[in-house]
Design brief:
Layout (H helix, E strand, L loop, with lengths): L23 H4 L6 H11 L9 H7 L4 H13 L3 E7 L5 E7 L6 H10 L57 H9 L1 H4 L11 H13 L4 H10 L11 H8 L24 E2 L9 E2 L9 H6 L5
Antiparallel strand pairs: 1-2, 3-4
Helix pairs in contact: 2-4, 6-8
Length: about 300
């Protein structure tokens, strides 16, 4: 049988403007997915000085959140993308991202990031405008009273309050405290939980134990929520707090197999040829009902 062979012809016109040069090692990288290559080449094609983060590039490239997470992890594992958290002027924290056309080690990336001046602020601030002249209020200025409680509960006018975690009466606080103390042994990503957060995490874990979960169930739930290998966790305490915020419902226990009614106790299904299952009550260990036994020819 003859096999059909395919011959490929390529036609390529070199662009005269708006083009980028990429190494074949990027396009043909064996461990980078198509989304990772698209994310990297898109970033490298941006003009010099562009401050577009990887997440914005993923939105423009129509890359979903899960695919973006996998693509970013691949680029970081191969050394094309590096990140670090730094504190800028005024105490503002920011994330610096370095995208390179060649793989870089962590030391090389830190040296390059150290040469880049950090922006003064991560938020866009509108220019200062001089206030317009206002007419003074009538009367003499007075100071607000500071010796009385407010008439209304301030919580009524406060939005986005944290969830209540009052478990002072929980009988599982000691078990929850031991559960939180064992978190650094579960994964290297949980080794640097701030000591100041342990009491809060203890109260959250106690809610799970009060609902009927075991410490093993809580540990397995936390492990399922951790990122994949090679992904650094900058705030392990905050991640555990997020995972324990909502108590998961208990898994329903499997129902026992149905039991026969008292009228059918002691019956057995006939192994003979029947249109429908045939139940009979054996006298010993027979497997055929009386009708099937009567049809079996007697030995000569």
């Amino acid at each position: 049988m003859e096999q059909d062979s395919t011959v490929i012809y390529r036609h390529f016109n070199a662009p005269s403007r708006a083009y980028s040069q990429f190494s074949h090692e990027i396009i043909r990288h064996p461990r980078l997915s198509a989304n990772a290559v698209r994310l990297l080449t898109w970033q490298l094609s941006l003009p010099q000085g562009a401050r577009e983060p990887l997440s914005r590039t993923a939105e423009r490239a129509r890359i979903g959140s899960c695919a973006f997470t996998r693509a970013k992890r691949q680029l970081m594992e191969e050394g094309f993308v590096h990140e670090r958290r730094v504190q800028g002027p005024g105490g503002h924290w920011m994330t610096q991202q370095l995208v390179s056309s060649t793989p870089l080690t962590s030391d090389e990336a830190i040296k390059l990031l150290s040469r880049t001046p950090a922006p003064t602020c991560t938020n866009r601030v509108s220019p200062q405008v001089a206030p317009s002249p206002r007419k003074p209020a009538a009367g003499q200025p007075t100071t607000p009273p500071a010796d009385r409680h407010p008439k209304k509960d301030p919580k009524e006018d406060t939005s986005n309050l944290p969830a209540r975690t009052d478990t002072a009466e929980s009988p599982h606080l000691d078990d929850a405290r031991a559960l939180v103390g064992a978190l650094p042994l579960l994964s290297p990503a949980l080794r640097h939980i701030p000591p100041a957060m342990r009491e809060e995490l203890t109260r959250l874990a106690a809610r799970w134990l009060d609902a009927g979960h075991t410490p093993t169930d809580v540990h397995e739930h936390i492990l399922r929520g951790l990122p994949g290998p090679g992904t650094s966790v900058h705030r392990p305490g905050g991640l555990v707090r997020y995972l324990l915020r909502d108590v998961a419902p208990l898994k329903a226990e499997p129902s026992p197999p149905p039991t026969l009614s008292a009228r059918l106790q002691g019956t057995r299904e006939c192994s003979g040829d029947h249109i429908q299952p045939m139940l009979f009550r054996p006298l010993a260990d027979e497997t055929l009902c009386s009708a099937c036994v009567s049809r079996v020819p007697a030995p000569s």
